Amino acid sequence: MSHGKQFTPYTYTTGPMAGWKVVFVLEELGLTYESVYLVFDKLEHESPEYTKLNPNGRIPALVDHKNGDFVIWESDAILLYLVDKYDTEKRLTVTDEKERYSLIQWLFFQASGQGPYFGQAVWFMRLHSEQVPSAIERYRKEVLRVFSVLESVLSKQEWLVGGKPTIADFSFISWNHVAINFAVKDYADVQKDYPALFSWHQKLVSRDSVKRVFAIQESLNKH
Questions:
Q1: Could you give the domains of the chain?
Q2: Where does the GST N-terminal domain lie (predicted)?
């Protein structure tokens, strides 16, 4: 560790990549870090130096220098590590056993139900070598299906678990943000059709920690 900060997150500069949710939580908990931004065009995420940290060759990975340079990867596993070890006031987690399993349930849903499908929607809309309308339609519909799941819960309660914002809520921010503002922007009226989800998302992105991270992301994308 040369930068003197506790954590080194390995992430990527653009897009709603999973690395940003880790930085949201680091900021929210006031933990010190210095990010390493991998250059995907140079395949740095597949380099031996990085795959020593994350054999999956994807972002994010996190090194905790104050815990013997412990390395952990998979974004939602990182969130659990951070709150289990460093959220001493339990601000972003829960203490009740049943609520903890509910929190883990939402993290699993985000990792399996939101991230992959929202990512595919963006891929086929922006990055695929040819337009495949049926694929775009499929993944946009899946975005709305996930929105419906969240709406069904958030229409009855303010937050996903514990009556407060937790890492369960934070885990959804990045992909929801790109879906609302890009993937389904001209496909659905999210504010009208999913009002509880829209309100929840606005409360999350209005937090100072999230605004700071969005400012970092915007500054990186100007270069």
A1: 7-91 (3.40.30.10), 97-208 (1.20.1050.10)
A2: 6-90
